[in-house]
């Protein structure tokens, strides 16, 4: 008999989680104004709100925490982190920050100005926030295939070179501080970008004299997909692939809460000395001295180890096959999901799941609330609420897709939890025709409204 797959780790510590009744959950979600971000965590049984900072650290990481060096300047833990980042990315300069958006804030303070254009593949929400906050514009150049959820394409995160070149031809070089490649592309469903595409973006950008940066939160997952799916990559290690990816960029911002395998942290790594100097000043103003950037020494020590573990094949295989395990169950049940299944999450296609709910009543949010009420599972809306209003016209923006993202924390839940999640979705799917009305906004903030929005039944 062929031996089945089993995870390359065992569990040393457990954390109890609490079940609740449907009635309790109906009250709680109404008190939370139908915004899942407003729920206290003990009111959630399985938390798939995000894979950001929610994973489990290894014994090696917990060991590293105890040997962290808390010196304000020149910490040994910074050196460990520098070595780890340099080994994986090849970049010369490192600035730690307290998380990924802080890295964006520091780097964009140097590079992005009023009226600038930043092309890329479906910019992440905080990234877009930091661009628009500076009165600059993010232009989405993702390939069209990414928006057809049923179409199978190995690299749905890819940048459309024709769209990108059009941006380069339309705007003067001085207005385009860089092209931003997000690996994997979170917003389009945790979809990878191919090495070939990254290289082509680099070549095209060189032709127009535009730098290339990576938003690299899930770079290791992206490298895993390259190894699995791209011709000629099968025999390379994840670390070799990562090194090549980063060689095509001028630098990166990182949310260490994803493929850093830690609960907090971020960083900027880059090659240009002048940008590093300028960014250092912003780091000191916003984050802290340049050898800690808002992190404690032990955070950096655990991150140094986490980056090494995240770029090992065995870890990535267990992580990504668990997400696939859940996704495949949903596909077998006939539930519409973004395909192929992404690296960190299953994206449920709410427009197909709930065709009776009007776009103005937020189908993905409606579905996320139903899944919570059904089973205490917390996912997140990636739809019109997240897409926010146009900064100039203040009109609601309706993206091409409406997803409920079920993000799987790293090394945290078992496949029994995946089975439970699949069963819950099946129950909601079976009664989908009874769900015909959604929600309306009763209060929203000016920017990034999804975190704090209040909703009423429509
Ligand atoms: C999470 C994330 C960020 C922001 O990082 P935080 O650590 O949450 O501040 C930026 N870009 C991408 C692609 C992300 O997934």
Automatic annotation (TrEMBL):
<comment type="similarity">
    <text>Belongs to the beta-eliminating lyase family.</text>
</comment>
<feature type="modified residue" description="N6-(pyridoxal phosphate)lysine">
    <location>
        <position position="258"/>
    </location>
</feature>
<keyword id="KW-0663">Pyridoxal phosphate</keyword>
<protein>
    <submittedName>
        <fullName>Tyrosine phenol-lyase</fullName>
        <ecNumber>4.1.99.2</ecNumber>
    </submittedName>
</protein>
<feature type="domain" description="Aromatic amino acid beta-eliminating lyase/threonine aldolase">
    <location>
        <begin position="47"/>
        <end position="423"/>
    </location>
</feature>
<dbReference type="InterPro" id="IPR015424">
    <property type="entry name" value="PyrdxlP-dep_Trfase"/>
</dbReference>
<dbReference type="InterPro" id="IPR011166">
    <property type="entry name" value="Beta-eliminating_lyase"/>
</dbReference>
<dbReference type="Pfam" id="PF01212">
    <property type="entry name" value="Beta_elim_lyase"/>
</dbReference>
<dbReference type="InterPro" id="IPR015422">
    <property type="entry name" value="PyrdxlP-dep_Trfase_small"/>
</dbReference>
<dbReference type="InterPro" id="IPR001597">
    <property type="entry name" value="ArAA_b-elim_lyase/Thr_aldolase"/>
</dbReference>
<dbReference type="GO" id="GO:0009072">
    <property type="term" value="P:aromatic amino acid metabolic process"/>
</dbReference>
<dbReference type="InterPro" id="IPR015421">
    <property type="entry name" value="PyrdxlP-dep_Trfase_major"/>
</dbReference>
<keyword id="KW-0456">Lyase</keyword>
<dbReference type="GO" id="GO:0050371">
    <property type="term" value="F:tyrosine phenol-lyase activity"/>
</dbReference>
């Amino acid at each position: 008999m062929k031996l089945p797959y089993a995870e390359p780790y065992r569990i040393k510590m457990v954390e109890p989680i609490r079940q609740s009744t449907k009635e309790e959950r109906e009250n709680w979600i109404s008190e939370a104004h139908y915004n899942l971000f407003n729920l206290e965590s003990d009111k959630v049984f399985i938390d798939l709100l995000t894979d950001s900072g929610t994973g489990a650290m290894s014994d090696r990481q917990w060991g590293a925490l105890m040997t962290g060096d808390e010196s304000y300047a020149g910490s040994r833990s910074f050196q460990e982190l520098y070595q780890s980042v340099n080994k994986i990315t090849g970049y010369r300069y490192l600035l730690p920050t307290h998380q990924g958006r802080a890295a964006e804030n520091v780097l964009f303070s140097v590079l992005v100005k009023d009226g600038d254009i930043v092309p890329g593949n479906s910019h992440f929400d905080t990234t877009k926030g930091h661009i628009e906050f500076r009165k600059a514009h993010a232009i989405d150049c993702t390939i069209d295939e990414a928006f057809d959820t049923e179409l199978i394409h190995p690299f749905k995160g890819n940048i459309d070179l024709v769209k990108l070149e059009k941006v380069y031809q339309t705007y003067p070089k001085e207005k385009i501080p860089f092209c931003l490649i997000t690996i994997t592309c979170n917003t389009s469903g945790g979809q990878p970008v191919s090495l070939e595409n990254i290289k082509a973006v680099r070549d095209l950008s060189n032709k127009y004299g535009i730098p290339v940066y990576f938003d690299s939160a899930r770079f290791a997952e992206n490298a895993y997909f390259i190894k699995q799916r791209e011709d000629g990559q099968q025999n390379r290690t994840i670390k070799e692939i990562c090194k090549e990816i980063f060689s095509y960029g001028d630098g990166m911002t990182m949310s260490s809460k994803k493929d850093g395998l830690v609960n907090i942290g971020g960083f900027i790594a880059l090659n240009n000395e002048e940008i590093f100097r300028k960014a250092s000043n912003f780091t000191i103003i916003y984050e802290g001295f340049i050898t800690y950037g808002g992190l404690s020494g032990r955070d950096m020590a655990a991150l140094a180890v986490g980056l090494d573990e995240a770029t090992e094949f065995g870890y990535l295989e267990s992580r990504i096959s668990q997400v696939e395990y859940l996704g495949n169950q949903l596909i077998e049940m006939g539930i519409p999901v973004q395909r192929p299944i992404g690296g960190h999450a299953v994206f449920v296609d709410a427009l197909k799941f709930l065709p009776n709910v009007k776009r103005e009543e937020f189908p993905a949010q409606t579905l996320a609330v139903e899944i919570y009420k059904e089973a205490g599972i917390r996912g997140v809306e990636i739809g019109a609420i997240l897409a926010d209003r146009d900064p100039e016209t203040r009109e609601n923006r309706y993206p091409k897709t409406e997803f409920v993202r079920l993000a799987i924390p790293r090394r945290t839940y078992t496949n029994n939890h995946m089975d439970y999640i699949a069963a819950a979705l099946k129950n909601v799917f079976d009664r989908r025709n009874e769900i015909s009305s959604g929600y309306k906004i009763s209060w929203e903030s000016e920017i990034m409204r999804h975190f704090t929005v209040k909703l009423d039944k429509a």
